[in-house]
């Protein structure tokens, strides 16, 4: 398996992987593939990586810009991250996350946020920070990872593509 940048022509495979990955997830809105497509159409994918095995895309991760207190900054949101059901629990998602975070840190990104399972993401350094809020979510599922600098505080807003789906 290798991880590479998304490239033109990957869109349909990414959509299929994402739909399959979230099909049985009860907490899912089942709009993850549409969100990724909307981010792509808006040129708002800060980083988009695929996991590929034998030239077949088996995983995808998207990072997009976020604002804190309506200010643009070197901040991104992680999500969605998807792995085909038959390849889950093999470490593919973890490799996508680690590779993405490494690239973002090298590019000067300061903070990455996500809304995700509070038992899964701490292994990558994510933690709930009550100083950062997202809409009405007062939950350990909203987490951040500081890649450089001081932890920010304020209200996080995702790209409008998240609301358009």
Q: How many DSSP-defined strands?
A: 9
Mean pLDDT: 92
The major sheet is characterized as: 9 strands, mixed
Shape: globular
- Helix content, binned percent: 10-25%
Any low-confidence stretches, pLDDT <50, length ≥5?
none
Break the fold down into its secondary structure elements and pairings:
Elements: E1 2-5, H1 11-22, H2 32-41, E2 47-53, E3 56-68, E4 71-83, H3 92-106, E5 111-115, E6 127-128, E7 132-134, E8 142-146, E9 154-158
Parallel strand pairs: 4-5, 7-9
Antiparallel strand pairs: 1-2, 2-3, 3-4, 3-9, 5-8, 6-8
Helix pairs in contact: 1-2
Question: Which descriptors would you attach to this protein?
Answer:
globular, 3 helices, alpha+beta, single chain, 165 residues, 9 strands
Structure description:
With 165 residues, the protein is of the alpha+beta class. 22% of the residues lie in helices and 35% in strands. The chain contains three helices and nine strands. Strands 1, 2, 3, 4, 5, 6, 7, 8 and 9 form a nine-stranded mixed sheet that branches. The longest helix has 15 residues. The protein is globular. The model has no long low-confidence stretch (mean pLDDT 92).
Condensed summary:
By secondary structure, the protein is an alpha+beta fold. It has 3 helices and 9 strands.
